[in-house]
Amino acid sequence: MTVLEVLKAASGHLQKHSSDSARLDAEVLLAQALGMRRLDLYLQFNRPLTDDELTRYRGLIKRRAHGDPVAYLVGHKEFMALDFEVTPAVLVPNPDTEVLVQRAVAIAREADRHLRVADAGTGSGSIAIAIAHYAPQVEVWASDTSREALDVAARNVARHGLVERVHLACGDLLEPLPGTFDLVCANLPYLAPGTDLPREVTAQPSGALFASQNGAALVLRLIQAAPARLNPGGRLLAEIDPAIMSAVSKGAGREFSSQSVLRDLGGHERVVEAWS
Ligand SMILES: C[S@@+](CC[C@H](N)C(=O)[O-])C[C@H]1O[C@@H](n2cnc3c(N)ncnc32)[C@H](O)[C@@H]1O
User: Fold this and answer.
1) What percentage of the chain reaches a pLDDT higher than 70?
2) Element (H, E) at 156
C-alpha cells in the first residue's frame, strides 16, 4: 500500500470512531510511524510502505481509534507556539489555557520589572515555561503533587533553556514554594468526579482532572491560601470550568476585594482574575 492509500483507509477508519480531526490525526500518526515531517508526506504520496512501517502505523491508528490522545502517541504537543514533551503522566496542554498565559504575560510586560510568579499544579510545566519564555523579566516557582509529572516538567524546562528562571517543587499548591509572589497562576483539576467524559479526556491522569466539591475544592483552597502569599498589588489567575464559576466567584469575593472573568475563544468563562 502507498502513503496515499493508507492515509485514506486510516482517516475513514478514524472517522467511524468519531475522531473530529480524522484526516489530520491520520497524517500526524503516519508521519510519526515513518519518522518524517507531516508536510513531507505530500511529496511522497506514491511511496509504498514496508511491512514494518505498516505494522507500526496500524498500532498507532488502533490506539487513536480507541481514544488515546494524539499527543500521547507522538509524545509532544504545541502550546503557545512552543513544543512540550507530554506523557500519560501529565495533562495534555489545552489551547483554552492560553487565555491565562496571555493575561499573565500582559501583566508582566505592563509591570516591566522583575516579577515572582507561582504556578500551582504545573503538570508538563506548560504555563510556567510559556510565561517565562514570553516574559523574560519573570522568575517562576511551580508545584505539583505528582513526581512523575514533575519529571516531565523538568525535561521541558531544560529543553526550553529555562533552568535559571523556572523552579520546580513537589507538594500541595503553594506550600512547597518559597517566599511571596506578584502573580499566582493555576490550572488545577476542576471537573466534578463522575462527570461523563470521552476516552480522549479520561486517558489523562485522574489526579489532573477531578476535584471534590463538584470540581471546585482545589481552586477554592488556592483562593484561600493565595492572599497570604501575594505581594501588595499582587494578583491571582485561576483557570476554571464555567460549572464552578459561581462557587469560585463567591470564594474570591470573600478573600479578594475585586475580581473579573476572562472568556476563552469559545466564549466560555475560563479564567478568574482576583486582586486585593
Ligand atoms: C489540570 S492539570 C494542569 C496541568 C498544567 N498546569 C496545564 O495547564 O497543562 C492539574 C495538575 O495539578 C496537579 N495537582 C493536583 N492536585 C494538586 C495539589 N493539591 N497541589 C499541586 N498540584 C496538584 C496534578 O497532578 C496536575 O498535574
Assistant:
1) 100
2) helix 147-159
Complete domains list, the chain, with CATH = 3-66 (1.10.8.10), 78-275 (3.40.50.150)
* Model pLDDT for residues 89-115, shown as the tens digit of each residue: 999 999 999 999 999 999 999 998 999
How far apart CA 190 and CA 210 sit, in angstroms, is 6
* Range 223-247 average pLDDT: 98
Atom of ligand 1 nearest to the CA of 186: 6
Residues 139 and 180 sit within 8 Å (Cβ to Cβ)? no
215 pocket-lining for ligand 1 (C-beta < 6 Å): no
**Ligand 1 center–CA 30 separation, angstroms:** 31
Ligand 1 pocket: which of 80, 85, 97, 145 to mutate (most atoms within 8 A of CB): 145
Nearest CA to 140 among 150, 153, 127?
A: 127
Query: Rounded to an integer, what distance in angstroms lies between the CA atom of residue 192 and that of residue 190?
Result: 7
pTM: 0.95
